[in-house]
């Protein structure tokens, strides 16, 4: 078993949180709590965006480009949070489509966009980016169940409570994931959160802005 460790400080951390205009999961409740934690406890720069129902993908890409242009460089940690419905649109790869609503069978309804295309677009920007996909993506990925507003609230609350308990102290994303997994086991949640590490990249440490060792890259992967 081998442990590698690499450290690099960030000058700042910027967060973009977005959801759909036609959201039917009461996303805004959990989103507001997350905004409050990131702003008040962590002193991060936080911005929210609502995906419109007309030209949805173009509007999101345009907003993302502006946001990345305003937060350029490898010294800025970017955190992107999506809350809403999602489904795998491919048969050979995970090509996720995002939407604000589903029918009773779980099929996406109304406007949707290709996260695969968005992700490819974001590859051109330098620096580290953490993606947090909340609610339906995790539910469908873990158990193929259909999310509702009652499903979404427990995970959102667990994430906010975990960050509040940390109170801005340094913690890697892997450590935060471990706490959320423990919560899922204790509460017998429908699905367990999923943590996907980028190969060859360290787990990112987040902390309150200005705290020693805040926002460092720290490789806690076990190889």
By secondary-structure content and strand pairing, the structural class works out as alpha/beta
CATH topology: Rossmann fold
Which word captures the global form?
A: globular
The first-level CATH class is given as: Alpha Beta
Low-confidence stretches: 1-6, 136-147, 215-223
Cα-based radius of gyration, to the nearest Å: 17 Å
Helical proportion, percent range: 25-40%
| Helix/strand order, N-terminal first | EHEHEEEHEHHEHEE
- Average predicted confidence as pLDDT: 79
Number of helices: 6
Largest sheet: 6 strands, mixed
Total strands: the figure is 9
CATH-derived architecture: 3-Layer(aba) Sandwich
Beginning-to-end CA distance, first to last residue: 6 Å
- Sheet-strand content, in percent, reads 25-35%
* Number of structural domains: 1
